[in-house]
TrEMBL record:
It comes from Vitis rotundifolia (Muscadine grape). The keyword Signal applies. It comes from the Eukaryota. Keywords: Glycoprotein, Glycosidase, Hydrolase, Signal. This is GH18 domain-containing protein. InterPro entries: Chitinase_II/V-like_cat, Chitinase_insertion_sf, GH, Glyco_hydro18_cat, Glycosyl_Hydrlase_18. Residues 1-23 form the signal peptide. One of its GO terms (molecular function) is chitinase activity. Coiled coil: none annotated. Belongs to the glycosyl hydrolase 18 family. Chitinase class V subfamily.
Length: 366
């Protein structure tokens, strides 16, 4: 009887150790992509626990996961490169992205059939292993129908099963499996498959940004507010909604941007929140949709003597000079969001994207 008790206790302790070692303790992550002319070797990987390499593609005919030829070397050496500064940092290959309107259709078609799902899953795992990534990240922006959402749930289940089987056969640690999703568990009337997400993903990256921009808002608004009494488009709403829908807080990672949005004011003297605008501002570093990297925002502020405002009620920053108005997150907003994530018991936080930071000012927070 004593031997049996000791054996059972040892077995229980072993299982608990395996579970705790497999569980993710915390996440401080950022996305990187090669098109920004910021080499992976420039990343200070000591500031992060996880790095996402973006983006692999989905072949619209075969549904295999592929990497564009011009990115092959950068992707295949990414893990080796970033681990030179931080051997413990984990890397994930992110698939998809919001850059192409066709990607959403490719995901929808792929997820609709068992054979195409299997091709996608197997090729993703093989690619991740051949490039020495520690995990895979799904960035489907966004499932457009209820059928898409149902198929997403099936895809995640089959993907997890394949990851477990591959690990068992290879003797390697299972690949991490994550996804970048909408900031809230519903997109209009379409609900994410919470049960499948909870069971099959290691965590969800909630994209709590791009709430407003000059392309669709006629007045100045905070692009990534943590709170907003005027609408549901804010990070806190999304976090609370995900948790109320059934996603454990420890499977939720809060996203924030290392970039802002620049509007053109109708009247330079009316420069607060909700000020009338007439589209995106023009100027150095401002993209056609008004997007502007944090480091470029700081340059604009210095060169133009811009006035700056931190609004604690929404947790968001803005600056203005002349008719240019920029909503963004500065150090106080990011620090507050980091504290919020910890206070809510979330798994952690991530940012898009690493090259937009200004000498690691934002990345060092938290």
């Amino acid at each position: 009887m004593a031997f049996n008790s000791i054996f059972l206790l040892f077995s229980l302790l072993s299982l608990l150790h395996l579970h705790s070692s497999a569980a993710q303790s915390s996440v401080k992550a950022v996305y990187w992509f090669p098109d920004n002319e910021f080499p992976a070797s420039n990343i200070d990987s000591t500031l992060f626990t996880h790095l996402f390499c973006a983006f692999a593609d989905v072949d619209p005919t075969t549904y295999q996961v592929t990497v564009a030829s011009q990115n092959t070397n950068a992707f295949s050496t990414f893990t080796t490169t970033v681990q030179q500064k931080n051997p413990s940092v984990k890397t994930l290959l992110s698939i998809g992205g919001g850059g192409s309107a066709d990607i959403k259709n490719h995901f929808s078609s792929m997820a609709s059939q068992p054979n195409s799902r299997k091709t996608f899953i197997d090729s993703a795992i093989n690619l991740a292993r051949s490039y020495n990534f520690h995990g895979l990240d799904l960035d489907w922006e966004y499932p457009a129908t209820d059928i898409d959402m149902t198929n997403l749930g099936v895809l995640l289940k089959e993907w997890r099963d394949a990851v477990v089987a591959e690990s068992s056969n290879s003797g390697k640690a299972p690949l991490l499996l994550t996804a970048a999703f909408y900031y809230a568990p519903k997109i209009e009337s379409r609900s994410y498959p919470i049960d499948s997400i909870t069971t099959n993903l290691d965590w969800v990256n909630a994209m709590a940004y791009d709430f407003y921009g000059p392309s669709w808002s006629q007045v100045t608004r905070a692009p990534a507010a943590l709170y907003d009494k005027e609408s549901q488009y804010n990070g806190n709403y999304g976090v609370v909604a995900w948790i109320q829908a059934g996603l454990p807080a420890k499977k939720l990672v809060l996203g924030f941007p290392f970039y802002g949005k620049a509007w053109r004011l109708v009247n330079a003297d009316n420069h607060g929140l909700f000020a009338p605008t007439n589209g995106a501002a023009n100027g150095e570093g401002i993209e056609s949709d008004g997007a502007m990297q944090y480091k470029q925002i700081k340059q604009f502020m210095a060169q133009n003597g811009a006035a700056t405002v931190f609004d604690a009620s929404i947790v968001g920053d803005y600056c203005y000079a002349g008719t240019t108005w920029i909503g963004y997150d500065d150090t106080q907003s990011i620090s507050t969001k980091v504290s919020y994530a910890k206070g809510k018991g979330l798994l952690g936080y991530f940012a898009w994207h690493v090259a937009a930071d200004d000498n690691w000012v934002l990345s060092q927070l938290g």
